[in-house]
Amino acid sequence: MSKSFINTWSLHFHDEEIEESFRLDNIQFESRLVKIFLLMLIGFNAIYAAKDFYFTEQRDLISLQFQVFFILPVYVAMSVYTNRFKHLFQNFSFYSFAVFLCVFTIVSQLCMLYLNGDNGKGLDSIVLIAIFGSFIFSGILYRQMLGIVPFVLVVLIIFLVFLFELPLVRIINVSLIYTMAICASLLTKYQIERQRRLSYNRAASLMSDEKDIKESYLRINALSEMRRDLIAILAHDVRSPLASLQGVLSLTKSGSLSPEESREYLEKVEQQVSTVNFLVNDILIWIKSQSDEADFEKGPVNLSSIIEDLKFLFLDAFEEKQIEFKVSLTIDNVYGQPDMIKTILRNFISNAIKFSDKGTAIVLESRPEGSKVRISVRDHGMGMTADELAKLKNTFNTKLGTRKEKGMGLGLKICRALIQAHKSNLEVISQPNEGTTMSFLLNRA
């Protein structure tokens, strides 16, 4: 695997999004190191302060007061802060806190050493603290530590030269010890950090591959289900009307039917063929909605123009059942795919007519709902029980209408798919003998 995605010098992902994701994923691990560092500092400072309190001849009083009344309270406050405000570790303000803690530790220890007035006694312990702190923080701020560590070294040398009367050999020894230890710790942390980043990248790649495989699997299942549905439709719902038409034509051709009988049968077959024609159009639109290009065909849609076409389409059905069709459009323009919206509303109205009693009303309305528009069709017909509502998701679940009208059982499945193509959901509210309301949400145009 190529490692070019990481800057080999600064150990920084070239992709800023990956870098930010890596930092956020690993910030809890690094924060634990910081908490451990704080607890160790509190413990060591408390032990040394207690020791020097009982053996005051080994420590200047000002230095002891500085440690007890300034350094220790600051460490305790930072420890409480890191434990109480855990949200601090969910963003990058933690890194600023880490820099402050590192610099404060080194500077405060040097100041305490100076106030002690014993000409640099205890310098080795401070160097160890600086080395340990640099090792911890180099995992969080590797690039920054490449600048901070030399800066600390320079500051340390300046303190040794100008504030303490140390021999030159002692200064050189301390500087060399610090330099070698820091280089060793940074090299170790570099390898650890590098392997962590490589492992993170491999894990991210595997997760991405797994996601792609899962999406492909779900897509194949959906296509397989669609194939089964289409075969069932062709085997029953399309073949049956065509067989009826063929039978009527054969009887008419052979002269077995009178003109009146032929006309009667042809009217029935015409209704069946018309239903099949709508079904075929619905299936074509349904297949179209399953393609990845469905989103690109959306645009502003005027509901009034669609409803006028539907009024004409269902005019005979409304008159036959004496159904009053009411329209109430608070918002007329929505954003979507015109043919799909028309298919959805046609199926809604067809179902409403099928299950409505003579002399009732069907209401189609649109109303604002937040930033979207809810479009609904409400009838006052048979309604559905809770069990019947639960069965609506079944592909071919259907029941007879108020006049024993038959349905093909696929309409709501197609509607649900078309509505999902608009990033919405079909909602059905129904009560037995009180009616049914079917609705969905669309964006405003």
UniProtKB/TrEMBL annotation:
Protein name: histidine kinase
Annotated organism of origin: Reichenbachiella ulvae
Alphabetized UniProt keyword annotations: Kinase, Membrane, Phosphoprotein, Transferase, Transmembrane, Transmembrane helix, Two-component regulatory system
Domain of life: Bacteria
Gene Ontology molecular function: kinase activity
The protein's Enzyme Commission number: 2.7.13.3
Catalytic activity: ATP + protein L-histidine = ADP + protein N-phospho-L-histidine
Segments passing through the bilayer: 33-50, 62-82, 94-116, 122-141, 148-164, 170-188
Domain Histidine kinase: 233-445
Keyword Transmembrane assigned: yes
